Amino acid sequence: MHRRSSLGGLWGLLGPHLESQQVNQALSQHFHPHHLLCNSPGWEVLGLLVWALIADTPYHLYPAYGWVMFVAVFLWLVTIVFFILYLFQLHMKMYMVPWPLVLMIFNVGATVLYITAFITCSAAVELTSLKGTRPYNQRAAASFFSCLVMIAYGVSAFFSFQAWRGVGSNAATSQMAGGYA
């Protein structure tokens, strides 16, 4: 009975006659644990902190921070779009899009862009502000958070790669994907 209540609306769609293995197989096809990691609101908050901390300083005077702002804001917006797609399960309506591949490419690209943003932001802190001042502290904090976001996108890229490659699928999922339904 606990399994039925934890499935929520999905149980009503699947019907009460499904065996436990069929329910697990149906869930594994439409919900992967990496979706929580790849589309976690936590990454969006960290990305927001990066560009908010820099935006509160006179960043327009230094071209390095223009690049960091572009990377942070652009990837923050795209991540929000992916989060909304997965939150409302809109990705399931666009079945022709290879979502595991799209997420993997996005996460790898975001990781590479955040590596450049982290290096740029970290290298520019000492050059653009005096130690101990408010802009210095904000830019140093932005460097720290950009490192965290870079690591988060890197971990997401790893899990996206595994989802794209099919690691972790069971025999039932493999058979379903092979057309033996």
Task: Give structural notes.
α5 runs antiparallel to α6 (63-87) and α6 runs antiparallel to α7 (99-128). The chain is an all-alpha fold and 181 residues long. It has helices spanning 2-7, 9-14, 20-30, 33-38, 41-55, 63-87, 99-128, 134-165, 171-177. The two termini are 26 Å apart. It has one domain. The chain has 9 helices and no strands. The longest helix has 32 residues, at 134-165. It is elongated.
Q: What's the SSE blueprint?
A:
Layout: H1 2-7, H2 9-14, H3 20-30, H4 33-38, H5 41-55, H6 63-87, H7 99-128, H8 134-165, H9 171-177
Domain MARVEL: 31-165
Subunit structure: Forms oligomers.
Pfam families: MARVEL
Summarize this structure as a short list of keywords or feature phrases:
single chain, 181 residues, mainly alpha, 9 helices, disordered C terminus, transmembrane, transmembrane helix, Marvel, membrane, Plasmolipin
Give the terminus-to-terminus CA distance: 26 Å
Give, in order, the helices and strands: HHHHHHHHH
How many strands, which pairing sense, and closed or not: the largest β-sheet? Answer: none
What's the domain count? 1
Quaternary structure of the protein: single chain
Query: Given the helix and strand composition, which structural class is it?
Result: mainly alpha
- Mean pLDDT figure: 79
Number of helices: 9
DSSP strand tally: 0
Helix content: over 70%
Strand % is under 5%
Question: What is the gyration radius calculated from CA atoms?
Answer: 21 Å
Poorly predicted runs: 1-36, 174-181
Shape verdict? elongated
Subunit structure: Forms oligomers.
Membrane topology: Multi-pass membrane protein
Protein name: Plasmolipin
Family: Belongs to the MAL family.
